[in-house]
């Protein structure tokens, strides 16, 4: 259950509207690094967290709800940036609407055509948000690793958007959101630390069923054999402490070629329907 009021999570001010910047900010809503992704990711992870791990469900739901507030903040920032054209464009346009001219020249047209000068559930290229961005595996450790990655790429995007503007109001908003990304990265690490021995994920699978010859071996795929580079991932104790890293090559064996294709699939290149491959002709 959710409750809502009209107060933003953090105040959003725009000193100089910029439709070009509004287009860029769409990435922070509907892009793979954006707020829709993390809000839905944490929410669906929470839906799959059992009662026995209730504190982690609360952690996920509280953060998901916070991320919904971030969507609202950025959507507000987009709307405010679409309220007017940059001053240099206003000076250049002798007649007509300078804001529309700006949108035609380099803004996101759908912000005008489909949303009436407001934000959209799309990325900066106008591509709709894709639900496949959401990672909710049902394994809490796997999800926490995914969350760390999501917050890392989200923070990187926010930092880039911070650098792209000289508007002090926008910089203030991004400074807040970047700080929250810092906290979220740390809280997911803290949850992993509290979960204890989670490697390899899933830790519940009996490792004795793995191929013991390759489960801690770095495989070189160079055509020509080379010496062990003696890196951290090719020698010494593995990160999970359950094995020893080693260096080797792909074992090889067998063939990827099928003997014949199913006739009903019509995979033959020739009209005879014979079993000749393209290579044989």
TrEMBL record:
Residues 223-243 have a biased composition (Basic and acidic residues). Pfam families: Mn_catalase. It comes from the Archaea. InterPro entries: Ferritin-like (IPR012347), Ferritin-like_SF (IPR009078), Mn_catalase (IPR007760), Mn_catalase_dom (IPR039377). SUPFAM superfamilies: Ferritin-like. Residues 223-256, 262-281 are annotated as: Disordered. Belongs to the manganese catalase family. This is Manganese catalase family protein. It comes from Halorientalis brevis.
């Amino acid at each position: 259950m959710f409750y809502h009021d009209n107060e933003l999570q953090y105040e959003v001010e725009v000193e100089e509207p910029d439709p070009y910047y509004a287009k860029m900010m769409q990435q922070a809503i509907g892009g793979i690094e954006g707020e829709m992704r993390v809000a839905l990711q944490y929410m669906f992870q929470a839906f799959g967290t059992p009662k026995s791990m209730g504190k982690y469900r609360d952690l996920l739901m509280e953060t998901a709800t916070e991320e919904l507030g971030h969507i609202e903040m950025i959507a507000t920032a987009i709307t405010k940036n679409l309220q007017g054209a940059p001053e240099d464009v206003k000076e250049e346009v002798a007649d007509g609407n300078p804001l529309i001219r700006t949108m035609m020249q380099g803004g996101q047209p759908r912000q005008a055509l489909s949303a009436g000068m407001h934000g959209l559930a799309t990325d900066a290229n106008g591509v709709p948000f894709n639900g496949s961005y959401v990672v909710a595996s049902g394994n809490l450790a796997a999800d926490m690793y995914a969350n760390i990655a999501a917050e890392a790429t989200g923070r990187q995007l926010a930092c880039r958007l911070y650098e792209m503007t000289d508007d002090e109001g926008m910089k203030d908003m991004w400074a807040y959101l970047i700080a929250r990304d810092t906290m979220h990265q740390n809280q997911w690490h803290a949850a992993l630390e509290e979960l204890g021995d989670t490697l390899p994920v899933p830790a519940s699978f009996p490792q004795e069923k793995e191929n013991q010859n390759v489960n801690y071996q770095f495989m070189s795929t160079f055509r020509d054999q080379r010496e062990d580079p003696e890196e951290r991932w090719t020698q010494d104790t593995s990160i999970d402490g359950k094995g020893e890293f080693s260096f080797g090559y792909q074992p090889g064996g067998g063939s990827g070629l099928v003997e014949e294709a199913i006739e009903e699939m019509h995979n033959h290149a020739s009209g005879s329907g014979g079993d000749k491959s393209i290579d044989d002709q």
